[in-house]
């Protein structure tokens, strides 16, 4: 009987301890995990890069996030999207903070931001045509040129005249028609669709109705028959004041679709002419 009483006492004490434990826990709250839930061992990490397109206002954004399934793009200009990668056309120049929020199916989020500076690029400077030996002053063999003003397809070798009254003392000489000369220089680089001025000096000795024509051609030609069709602009000088003084000529033209031009010079009549001092510039 005494043993039974001991068991009853022990049970009573155990029940009291459980009640005390339950009572003491009433002041604590526990957030228990959902059934079958697992710890997010690979949380998402947002990351991306930006690249401008041919249109300086439009950028593409390459998503490099990991362990994510959903994405929210905020482009900092009021525009948003939810695709994996992003693309946005900004309204104007300025600095925009682009934010990517990457999340997974457990609702864990990661945020990455990048400042995008939108600036309209400056127009590249147009190429200034570089005319080789523009004053015909480089030495030639026996007063004749072999390069860069000569092309055997288009005429005879031009002659060089020397005089202290010339700029640099030398000029290209164009004798009368019975001993005609043609000067031609090709592969002069230009920027397409750009306005240019090519200037030069010429003079014609007295005689009959003589002239000197300087033509700016688009690209290159290989036959005299092609000159007219390739001409962008030309000038025919007829002023006859003797060997000097020289007349100054400015030929304005647009390069069109051409990335190179050439210069062709020829004379007519029996009076001898001279050409020298070519210069070139871009019309702003």
Topology record:
Blueprint: H1 2-24, E1 48-52, E2 58-63, E3 70-74, E4 80-81, E5 86-89, E6 94-103, E7 109-118, E8 159-162, E9 170-174, E10 182-189, E11 195-204, E12 211-218, H2 227-230, E13 231-237, E14 247-254, E15 260-268, E16 273-282
Summarize the structure.
With 284 residues, the chain is mainly β. Helix content is 10%, strand content 39%. Among the domains are: 48-118, Sandwich (Immunoglobulin-like), CATH 2.60.40; 159-282, Galactose-binding domain-like (Jelly Rolls, Sandwich).
Q: What characteristic shape results from the CA principal axes? A: rod-shaped
The rounded Rg comes to 43 Å
CATH class of the domain at 159-282: Mainly Beta
CATH third-level topology of the domain at 159-282: Jelly Rolls
> Main beta sheet: strand number and arrangement?
5 strands, antiparallel
Helical amount: under 10%
Query: Which regions contain 5 or more consecutive residues with pLDDT less than 50?
Result: 1-8, 10-33
Mean pLDDT value: 85
> Topology as H/E string?
HEEEEEEEEEEEEHEEEE
Lateral strand order in the biggest sheet: 8-9-16-11-14
Number of strands: 16
What's the assembly state of these chains?
single chain
Structural class: mainly beta
- Give the DSSP E fraction (strand runs of 2 or more residues): 35-45%
- What is the terminal separation in angstroms? 121 Å
**CATH A-level architecture of the domain at 159-282:** Sandwich
CATH level-four homologous superfamily name of the domain at 159-282: Galactose-binding domain-like
Count of alpha/pi helices: 2
């Amino acid at each position: 009987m005494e043993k039974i009483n001991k068991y009853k006492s022990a049970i009573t004490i155990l029940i009291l301890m459980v009640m005390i434990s339950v009572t003491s826990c009433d002041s604590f709250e526990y957030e228990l995990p959902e059934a079958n839930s697992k710890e997010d061992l690979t949380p998402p990490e947002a990351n991306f890069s930006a690249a401008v397109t041919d249109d300086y206002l439009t950028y593409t954004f390459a998503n490099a996030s990991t362990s994510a399934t959903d994405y929210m793009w905020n482009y900092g200009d009021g525009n948003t999207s939810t695709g994996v990668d992003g693309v946005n056309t900004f309204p104007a120049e300025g600095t925009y903070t682009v934010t990517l929020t990457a999340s997974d199916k457990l609702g864990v989020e990661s945020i990455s931001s990048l400042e995008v500076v939108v600036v309209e690029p400056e127009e590249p400077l147009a190429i200034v045509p570089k005319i080789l030996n523009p004053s015909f002053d480089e030495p030639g063999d026996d007063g004749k040129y072999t390069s860069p003003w000569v092309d055997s397809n288009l005429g005879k070798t031009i002659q060089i005249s020397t005089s202290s009254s010339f700029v640099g003392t030398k000029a290209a000489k164009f004798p009368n028609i019975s001993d005609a000369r043609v000067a031609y220089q090709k592969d002069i680089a230009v920027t397409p669709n750009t306005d240019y001025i090519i200037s030069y000096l010429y003079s014609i000795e007295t005689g009959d109705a003589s002239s000197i024509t300087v033509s700016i051609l688009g690209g290159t030609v290989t036959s005299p028959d092609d000159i007219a069709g390739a001409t962008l602009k030309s000038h025919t000088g007829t002023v006859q004041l003797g060997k000097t003084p020289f007349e100054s000529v400015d030929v304005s033209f647009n390069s069109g679709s051409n990335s190179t031009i050439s210069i062709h010079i020829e004379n007519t009549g029996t009076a001898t002419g001279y050409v020298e001092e070519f210069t070139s510039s871009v019309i702003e």
